Every structure is written in C-alpha cells, then in structure tokens.
Amino acid sequence: MTLNPESFLALATLLFGIGAVGVMSRRNIFVVYMSIELMLNAVNIVLATFSRLHPDMGGSVIALLIIGVIAAEAALFLAMIVQLYRKKRTVDSDAFTDLAQRRLS
Q1: Which of 36, 37, 53, 77 reaches 20 to 30 Å from 19, CA-CA?
Q2: 3-class state of residue 28 by DSSP
C-alpha cells in the first residue's frame, strides 16, 4: 500500500486545524502548549512531504531545524508554566490577565 502526498497534506491540515482550535478555545495553558506543538508538527509533516516530492533535501533540513527549535521552546515554555503556577497556583490562562495589563513606562 502506497500513500500519496495528498493524504499527508490532508493529515497535516487536520492536525493544524485541531491545534488552532485548541489554541483559540482552551484556557488551560498546558492544553494551549500542546496545541502549539501539534501545529508545529503539522508544519513538519508538510515540509517532509514537499521534500519527498522534490529531489531536494531543503525541506528535511528545515524540518530538523524546526525540531530543534521545538525542543528549546518546550524547555522555555515549561519553565514559564512552572513560574506562573508558583505565582498564581493555577494553570488557567484567565488568571494571568494582569500580565497583559502592565505597560512599559
């Protein structure tokens, strides 16, 4: 059984859509984080698919670089979640509205 590129692009579109809905509709910052990760992995599927279609390794190289960025982003985001939890004792994003209201003087 061979899979055609359209099926991979459809899968990536579905994953990206699920991630976008998760980012926009959820209040738990862990769920928002996982939705962002899902969207980034959908982009990686698209890059790998296009790299496979064309005899060029550029898409695969960029996908590997994105995986490295995802790892660094995961460390920073999880550290930020821990700090916010220590401050507010909740992971509900509505509790962090005071961070958005501060202005730089």
Answers
A1: 53
A2: strand
pLDDT at 52: 87
Phi and psi of 92, rounded to 5°? -80, 125
89 φ/ψ sector (left φ>0, alpha ψ -120 to 50, else beta): left
Nearest to 6 by CA among 35, 40, 46: 46
- Give per-10-residue mean pLDDT for the chain (105 aa): 87 96 89 92 91 84 90 90 85 71 55
Tokens 């060029």 belong to residue: 56
Asked if 31 and 48 touch (Cβ cutoff 8 Å), the reply is no
User: What is the predicted pLDDT for the residue at 95?
Assistant: 75
In the beta sheet, which residues pair with residue 92? 28
Domains located in the chain, CATH noted: 5-89 (1.10.287.3510)
pTM here is 0.80
